[in-house]
Amino acid sequence: MSNYNGQFQTLTVEGRAFFIGDLHGERKQLSQLLSAVNFAPERGDRVICVGDLIDRGQDSVACLDLLDLPWFHSVLGNHEAMLMDALTGDAENLNSWLRCGGAWYLDLEEPERIAMMAKAERLLPQVPFGLEVQLPSLEARIGVVHAECPTDHWAEFREACEYPLNHHQQFACLWSRDTLREMTKGAYPPPLPGIDAVVMGHTPQQNLKSHGNRVWLDTGSGYSQGRLSLLSAEQILELVRCPA
To answer: Which domain holds residue 213?
Structure first.
């Protein structure tokens, strides 16, 4: 994996906080969802994504551009990590990314391609593995990681991010599906200590899935039968406090 400067960030949201699943190039869907909730960044509203901004969907470049906007925040997804690995110039890394949804890169004109790569090199190394969203009005904190928290306690994750995460921890953040896999076998984890809720993506689900204080938001955006999901902080906290 590439080297990353982004490890962990803390974000305080004074307005409304909206959490979205894997975006995968669907900027138009995001705009429609934000319009439906009267999103108002000038009043402190913010969007927090679980990663995978790019690939598969209709407009990866516009979704990458979101990282330049002050109201948009995201953790690193495995698709951004693959793009960063492709930026190293290694042909195998490039081909791996192209096979996994990055073929839109080949459709860009040369000037667009150069501009996109320059933007990715500038923005992506700063995108964190973990994000903690502090919500003073709700007296709550919601953690965000793309695939899985790599430790058994949220505070341990924060502490681990004070140093470069090791390969195993990076892999868990970006790629792991262990918890969901175990849940399909009937082995359900206890709530993750140290945080009110943890929001994740990475594994497409037909419907939103939650257990304990974990919520998975990837509902297949970028796939023909999928969609982008958006939940407010209040909806996230309601899910974990009053599970179905």
So the answer is: 8-77+129-241
CATH number at residue 188: 3.60.21.10
Question: What is d(CA 3, CA 242) in angstroms, rounded to the nearest whole number?
Answer: 40
44-68, pLDDT tens digit by residue?
999 999 999 999 999 999 999 999 9
Instruction: Kindly report the pTM of this predicted structure.
Output: 0.95
Q: Among 79, 153, 202, 211, which one carries the catalytic annotation? A: 79
Which letter does DSSP use for residue 137 in this model? G
65 occurs within a structural domain: yes
Indicate the number of domains in the chain. Answer: 1
Burial (CB count within 10 angstroms: exposed 0-12, middle 13-18, buried 19+), residue 216: buried
Is 144 in a helix, a strand, or coil? strand
Residue with tokens 């899935």: 209
CB of 197 closer than 8 Å to CB of 213: yes
In a domain, 90, yes or no: no
Q: What is the pLDDT of residues 102-151, one digit of tens each?
A: 999 999 999 999 999 999 999 999 999 999 999 999 999 999 999 999 99
| Domain membership flag for residue 88 | no
202 is catalytic: no
